[in-house]
Design brief:
about 120 residues, alpha+beta, 5-stranded mixed beta sheet, globular, hydrolase, UPF0102 protein BX611_0727, nucleic acid binding, nuclease
Length: about 120
């Protein structure tokens, strides 16, 4: 497996741990619909958090959240619409980004709630 894939998997593990420590219930990981993959679907109270995890070893080329583009957002919105309908859920949906910088010396996790409002 490529090193960047290892880093991505580690980032997702860190995100799940962070969310669980903050009272989120993890419902799905790597949920797929058509061309979309949602890294984490979690619930806290009556809010369904749709979470894109972006992990980088540094911010030299930009912050992790800067790598979520409009196409990714569009795919995630379409996918979560299908998820909510197929599960017959009555919840508020929020799109978050977990921006993680992980290298051998440090780990920084930033949970950006309602992240797509800023695009």
């Amino acid at each position: 497996m490529a090193i960047h894939n290892d880093l991505g998997k580690k980032g997702e593990e860190l995100a799940v741990e962070f969310l669980q420590n903050n009272n989120y219930q993890i419902l799905e990981r790597n949920w797929r619909f058509k061309k979309a993959e949602i890294d984490i679907i979690a619930k806290k109270n009556d809010v369904l958090a749709v979470i894109e995890v972006k992990t980088r070893s540094s911010n030299y080329f930009g912050n992790p959240q800067d790598f979520v583009n409009q196409k990714k957002i569009q795919l995630m919105v379409e996918a979560i619409n299908e998820y909510v309908i197929s599960k017959d859920l009555d919840v508020e949906v929020r799109f978050d980004i977990m921006a993680i910088i992980k290298n051998k010396n440090t780990t920084k996790i930033e949970h950006l709630k309602d992240a797509f409002l800023h695009f």
